[in-house]
Amino acid sequence: MDAAGIAFQILQSVFVVLAAPALLGWVNQCRAWLQNRKGPGILRPYFLLWRLFHKEAVVAHNASALFRATPYVLFGCMWLAAGIVPVLATDLPFAFAADIIALVGIFALARVFISLAAMDIGTAFGGIGARREMLIGFLAEPAMLMTLFTAAFLSGSTALTTIVETLAHREFAIHPGLACAAVAFLMVLLAENARIPVDNPTTHLELTMIHEALILEYSARHLALVEWAAAIKLFAYMTIGIALFVPWGIAEGSDWLGLPLAVAAAAAKLALAGAGLAVLETVSAKFRVFRAPEFLSTAFLLAVLGMLVHFLTDV
Amino acid sequence: MTEQWVNLAATILLIIAFAMLSQRRVLSLVRLFAWQGLVLSVSTAMVAYSTGQSHLWISAALTLGLKVIVLPIVLHSLIVRLNVRWDVEPLINVPTTMLAGIGLVIFAFALATPISQLAGTVTRSTLGIALASVLLSFLMMIVRRKAVPQVIGFLAMENGLFFAATSATYGMPLVVELGIALDVLVGTFVFGIFFFHIRETFDSLDIRHMEKLKED
Amino acid sequence: MNLASFPSAEAAVGIGLAWLALGAFSLLESERARFVARGVFPLSALVSFALAALALRTLGDPADTLTLPLGLPDLPFHVRLDGLSAFFLCLLGVCSFGITLYASDYFRSESVQKLRLLSLQYHWFLASMTFVLLADDAYMFMVAWEAMALSSYFLVVTEHRQGTIRRAAFIYLLIAHIGALSILLCFGVLHEAGVEAYSFDALRQAQLTPFWASVAFLLALVGFGAKAGMMPLHVWLPDAHPAAPSPVSALMSGVMLKTAIYGLVRVVFDLIGSPMWQWGLLVAGMGATTALFGILYALQQNDLKRLLAYSSVENIGIILVGLGLAMIFFGSGHPEAGALGLIGAFYHCLNHGAYKSLLFLGAGTVLRSTGMRNLNEMGGLIHRMPQVAGYFLVGSLAISALPPLNGFVSEWLMLQTALQAGQLDNGVLRSLVPLLAAMLALAAALTARCFVKAFGIAFLGQPRGVVSEHAHGHGEEDASLFERLGMAWLAVWCLVLGVFPSTVVGLLNQVSLSVAGAGLPPSALEAGVLWLVPSTQARASYGPIVFLLVIAVVVLITYVTVRVCFHGRLRRAPPWDCGFPEQTARMQDSSEGFGQSIRVIFAPIFRIAQRVPNPEDAQPKFELRVEDKHWHGFYLPIARAVEYLSARIGKLQQGRISTYLLYSFVTLIALLVFVR
Question: What is the 8-class DSSP label of residue C303?
Fold first, then answer.
């Protein structure tokens, strides 16, 4: 753990945290274009955050300390996740703190906290949001782990940095198992980040919402932190997907010369992924909450098949 | 490289087999069946290209013509004329079926691994998937109650067998393949005639009615 | 002090005797209830502490044996303190320290008579558990095992005036005895013909054919599984644990279930010696089903203590998965991966001891001060009992396997074990082991949901209905000093076990070495305190300290930045009512509501009786009963069969002496024919 490594580590974390709202803005912008609208611009989320931070926080009378602490915990969890996933370089000293299983654990921690905070006020919405969030969570988590297991079996490691190094340094090869895992991962990503078809990030209709129901009682700086954390989560999921399935172009170790290339590669891949997400969200319709189990068990099935196929064809 | 592409095709076949297992709509089943034929034909063509086995080209073309174009059209028109286009089959217990499917896949893979090590083909690792497709189609025939999906399951099973032959020994002799293709074609027509008879007798294609035929 | 000569076995026996003495003493001391609560229990806590310290100190030492001058003539008790015993004694000491401290306050309002009996049974329970863990011959083991069952039975029927509790305790006793019978038979099978002694040493030396070894293993699995609460032998557990007073529930769930795990490990890894992978597959499969069923049923419970009891079933399942994985890997010749699984299982025993005891104690304080155990009556307790809420939150987060608390570590270790599946040669096994891991992950995620439900409905939100308001007059108060101390001790362990896993794994590695003769690879142990590493750091590592530090620092920086750069203005207002001002606390999500989606998705495994009201009903009432299918599918048929058989056998009873004489006569003739 040398100074350069730590500098790289901090640089990457800050980069991710600062760039995350831009990704969200980009997805929204792409979606607007696809729907023949002008769009709010990529920088819109930053203005939103800025405005929220300036507002006076309104908190319910019976809110407990847990309610007020949760946005900070959420933000801390996501920051840690952002520091672990190799986005720019693979030599990250913090990365040893959490492998892919622990990464799933971080997201679970954040999920439990936001669900508890939603139940804290005691309104009907909070409860239903928490219930749905945990429903998505318990179905998505095993599917996510199985996708990650396929990558772990392929590279013989659960450390993300090692996986990326192994996968990026090999000659190009098609791994059918990994392809299955990639599709499963995409489905988990949609569910976990409250995107269409599982949840609609732009709606406040009570019967359909999950994420919005959870955060209904938050305002001002708390809401800003929660939304920012959600943006980082989307960013982190996308970068995990990129790291597992298209790792090429990442900087080796802490290589300052490779940094501009790495930034460019990361930006390009993320832009593509964001546009892809926008296309997916435009062409599909949100389905009822009751169908989420079917959706996610399909993801689980795909992930398991991917792992089995991997055992058959690659060993 | 071909091996990897064929593996990918095999994986897609496996996923299509699972999709057929859980698909409720008859028309979507036909569409999935056509996709399965297409993937099969493409993978056969790839094997033909890389190994230079010329008879594989013919069987790829045969698959394309018969299983992607003719049979789906026949099935489609059958469905339209039988007026079962909007038939939605009440599938009970999809998760259990899926779990059984995963069990079958594990079984098939374990069974195929020692055999495929004996085979010298580039496609040997797909033998397990081919076997799994056969078993999954069999499972599909077991859990279905309507006649048309059962026939599709039967045809899908034939697809799996064909794929197994390609992966183990680069396909069967051409004569055999042609014979099977003819059999399948004729079989489908025979099935079609049967469908009409069944429906005339029972006013439904639900094969549970057949249980009444037994002697009491 | 010379380590080798330290009489550790003597000291451990002394601790057991001290508990016996304390129990007897509280029976003698007749007048002052206060003295029993405030004198005997803290003293007993000190004894627990001494036990924990002693066990921790002897964890890596070679086994220390002792023959007691007790027992039958020519059949003395043998005592042995080795790594495995020391580990479980340590678990006993650590958990019982916190629980006993708590108990000294919890029981203070009981009447003198009741308290004296309670104290006697409580301490004899502790002592019998100590002797179970120390026993080195089948005879002493069975005596201590039965003593444990009986003393816990009497603790369960403390409130013996309630019929349901008597019934729960009876079922407990029944299944405990079926289990004990099975264990006895297991020792019989292990015992080699011709050898007199039933000491564990003799059993170890016995040479068994694979068939008889499998028979012994199955008997042990049934016997210890019945005690541990393995499906389908778990039915006593969700009835008996909530029936007991809360500290006793904590002791039973947190510690007593682990003695069954101890027994299973002792028989399989030590006495039989070489596990076969088929056994492992069976154990892991049973474990995964138990875990899944346990947590699904836990999610359907409205009674907080019953929910916790079902969650204990789940945790036992997880431990069994770990053991099963260890057996699979040992059985197929991968001792390093096997050791990892074994360590994961041990770690989970320790974790479950800490957090489940903590949760039961929290539920106990809620019950004592509000009289509520139904989740649908609770709500908003965090405002009235912030201390208990805090401890309960720690326990909930820990049991939900969330980093950086302890539940996550054992979960992680087991998943890492499952990831070693690539080494296995058997294709079926290689495919099944990751699926077990998936079931483990599913169970963990469901646990998170279950405890979001438990904590969210009990402690968060608004008080539900009249009952909660009424509870004000019930003398509601937060936990008292000793209760807090007890819970704090356990909560600290949840944190310590979560943050310093590599130290704990180092110790558990010695246990694994002593019981199974294999440990982790040396590269795993060299990584230092910061990192937990199963084999090499490139493969996998987890650093909870860094983890915790990063989150803490970020939270701090964010907080300060937000406050400095912007402002800290805060306005309190009523919650947003969505334009409908008539919101009441009864509109909150209920306990049944939280389990609804699970009920729908996993409907086939529940036995659901639901009555949905009509729109025309004058007094609409929603009724829902979710029952364990095992009662109707497994136990009632057996009970019916037994009744049928006994009715048939009952016909032999004629009441006439000449008939009985005829029976004896026929038996005599038959014997003479056969023995001839």
Answer: B
Which residue in the set C539, C550, C600 is minimally distant from A158, CB to CB? C539
Q: How far apart are CA A110 and CA A229, in angstroms?
A: 9
pLDDT band per the 50, 70, 90 thresholds, residue A206: low
Are B102 and C428 in contact (CB < 8 Å)?
A: no
Is A159–C546 a contact, with Cβ atoms under 8 angstroms apart?
no
When pLDDT is cut at 50, 70 and 90, the band that residue C400 belongs to is very high
Exposed, middle or buried, A215 (CB in 10 Å: 0-12/13-18/19+)?
buried
- Is A77 within 8 Å of A105 (Cβ atoms)? no
Quick one: how far is CA A154 from the chain centroid?
Answer: 23
Dihedral pair phi/psi, residue C610, rounded to 5°: -130, 140
- Domain limits, chain C: 1-204+245-252, 602-675
Q: Please indicate whether, in this complex, the C-beta atoms of A124 and C589 are within 8 angstroms of each other.
A: yes
- Alpha carbon B116 to chain centroid, angstroms: 21
Residue C432, chain B, CB below 8 Å: the answer is yes
Tens of pLDDT, residue by residue over C627-640, are 888 888 888 888 89
Residues of A at the B interface (Cβ-Cβ below 8 Å)? 173-177, 179-180, 294, 297, 301-302, 304-306, 308-309, 311-313
Nearest by CB to residue C428, choosing from B93, B102, B106, is B106
Considering only residues A92 and A58, tell me which one the structure prediction assigns the higher pLDDT: A58
Asked whether C128 and C144 are in contact (CB, 8 A), the reply is yes
Number of domains in chain A: 1
Q: Is the pLDDT of residue C396 over 90?
A: yes
> Is B95–A180 a contact, with Cβ atoms under 8 angstroms apart?
no
For residues C593 and A131, is the Cβ–Cβ distance under 8 A?
Answer: yes
Q: For residues C454 and C396, is the Cβ–Cβ distance under 8 A?
A: yes
Neighbouring chains of A at 3+ CB pairs under 8 Å are B, C
**So what's the pLDDT on residue C318?**
95
DSSP conformation letters of A90-157:
S--GGGGG--HHHHHHHHHHHHHHHHHHHHHS--HHHHHHHHHHHHHHHHHHHHHHHHHHHHHHHHT-
Strands C75-81 and C570-573: unpaired
Range of the domain at A15: 3-314
| Whole-Å CA distances, A76 to A84, A315, C217, C421, C554 | 13, 39, 48, 34, 5
Give the nearest partner residue to A176 out of B7, B95, B106, using CB atoms: B7
Contacts of C432 in chain B (CB under 8 A): 106
Neighbours of C244 (CB within 10 A): 28
> Does the bond joining C232 to the residue before it have cis omega, within 30 degrees of 0?
yes
Its pTM stands at: 0.91
Which chain C residues touch A162 with a CB distance below 8 Å?
A: 538-539
Minimal Cβ distance to B4: which of A173, A180, A306: A173
Cβ contacts of A138 on chain C, cutoff 8 Å? 442, 445-446, 448-449
Chain C nearest-CA distance from A152, in A, is 8
- In DSSP terms, B146 is beta-bridged to B206
Residue C2: pLDDT over 50: no
* CA atoms of B24 and B52, how far apart (whole Å): 40
Q: How far is CA C190 from CA A5, C78, C216, C265, in A?
A: 58, 18, 6, 15
**Cis-peptide into A197, omega within 30 deg:** yes
d(CA A19, CA B88): 47
Residue C404, preceding peptide bond in cis (omega within 30° of 0):
yes
The complex's ipTM?
Answer: 0.93
Q: In terms of CA atoms, which chain A residue is nearest residue B127?
A: A312
End-to-end Cα, chain B, rounded Å = 60
C402 contacts in chain A (CB < 8 Å)? 105, 108-109, 112
- Which of A138, A290, A304 is facing C435, going by the closest CB pair? A304
